[in-house]
Amino acid sequence: MVTSIARQSVIIKCNMQKSVITGLYEYYYGAGLLAGLCGFTIPEDIRPDELKDFLGARKEQAVAGDERTSYLKEILLKYVPAGAYDSQMQELLAWGMSEQHPWEVNVTIPPSAS
Predict the structure, then answer these.
(1) How far, in Å, CA of 48 to CA of 28, rounded?
(2) Which of 3, 13, 68, 89 is deepest in the core (most CB within 10 A)?
(3) Are 1 and 88 in contact (CB under 8 A)?
(4) What CA–CA distances, in Å, run from 100 to 37, 38, 78, 92?
(5) What's this model's pTM, rounded to 2 decimal places?
(6) What pLDDT, on the 0 to 100 scale, is given for residue 60?
């Protein structure tokens, strides 16, 4: 999987305040992003069910800075993780926690064929 797709999906959903988390890759990037925005750290090797409990225990600590952060927190807490854990989830979690441009989506549009 191209990890940037999961990142862009989460960012677009939060910017538009539409949709929900639809998979573990989005979930891990979003959890990392929330942690980075709210000032807490998530263990890098955390498994999906543990991450659900971890976020639930910190829902009061995850103080929203703006509407997008509030929406991110809401969709993460509603998500029910299921499926297998893999190394890309660890990568996405770390990326979210260290995100420098949290609400920017970078899309390259190819030049039109003229």
Answers:
(1) 8
(2) 89
(3) yes
(4) 10, 14, 26, 14
(5) 0.89
(6) 81
